[in-house]
Amino acid sequence: MNVGFYRSLFPITATHIHLASCSQGALAKPVSRAIEDYQHELLVSGNNWKAAMRKAEEARERFAKLIGAEADEIALVASVSDAISAVAVSLSAGAEKRKISFTDIDFPTVGHIWLAQESFKEKTSIIRSCHGEIPLEQYEQDVTADTLITCIPHVSYYNGYKQNLEEIARIVHQKGSLLFVDAYQSAGHIPIHVKEMKIDLLTAGTRKYMLGIPGAAFLYIRKELAEQLKPQITGWLGQNPSSTFDIERPMFAAGTRRFETGTPSFISIYAACSALNLLLEIGVEQIEADLTELARFTIQYGQEKGLHLIGPANLDQRSSLVAFQVGDAAKAEAMLRDKKVIVSAREDVIRIAPHLYNTQEEIQHALDELAIVLKKI
Fold first, then answer.
1. What is the CATH number of the domain that holds 132?
2. I need a labelling partner for 221 at 20 to 30 A (CA). Which of 178, 234, 245, 372 fits?
3. Which regions of the chain does DSSP assign to beta strands (E)?
4. How many C-beta neighbours within 10 Å does residue 154 have?
5. Which one of 280, 307, 333 terminates a domain?
6. Which residues form the Aminotransferase class V domain (predicted)?
7. pTM confidence score
């Protein structure tokens, strides 16, 4: 991959070191132009509905290609929280299986949503981690024949720990459970193939490693499963075309499209489409290979600087997101930003999260600055 060329597409790299893709990816020139295109269409036409709907279909197809799915297995939603909520309320309260499992390394919104479901509230099971990691044996133990759905993150937002989706899918399917994957911290820089990995449901947003902006996310549901679900959150875009304007006789759209509601944030969709085109042009496999080497350097150099690594050192068990323990992480983040180094704080860690536009030299400089900051706080 020609890092120099792709760096030139991200203006922020000329003035700052951007290492916060786990929170917000840097904005690329073609993505910025896509946003301007949306605005221009409105300025000159007044109504760009048909063009915007075509762009939505293009974004759907691009995300489907990114994860190895079919377009009709993808719904466009506003956020990952919306996607999880839509699935949660679509599950039958009278289902024979009553148990919901999620992990303590999920992003908190996952627990918030499931614990808000009165019909499942007393039947939730939290799969516990050990030092931020979950051994496969824990899934064997905690997922039971009574488990309806098991929710897991592909990558931990806190420490970059990466889970083995194929093996977890094998375990939960043996127990008769569905597997719902939060891929917000992996889609865009780690290869995903939902069919090969036997994933039943998956969601991801665009503002992090997919290089988009807030307001656009995707929900994948395996086609056969989607046809069995009856969304309680729906809307006119989630209807079969024949009933779109029939107020008395609604009929769900085919596949996962039934989970769509009203008019999406088109400006976010335009950005997402351009960003996905960029990722597919480069290839996620190539991005992962380059970021693995950056992660290797980050861990090694960080430890040489006396920084305390949080999460596994084994590159097979982690993403390129590397977390170092910091007492006052929020203060450290602010101090680094004053030095034009953009990182992301979470609880007691500073997360170093590079993407395709970053270099080893940038990471070295960022860690040098972090070491200096730690001596001041």
1. 3.40.640.10
2. 245
3. 17-18, 74-77, 99-103, 124-127, 147-153, 178-182, 201-205, 217-221, 309-310, 322-325, 341-342, 344-346, 349-352
4. 24
5. 280
6. 50-363
7. 0.96
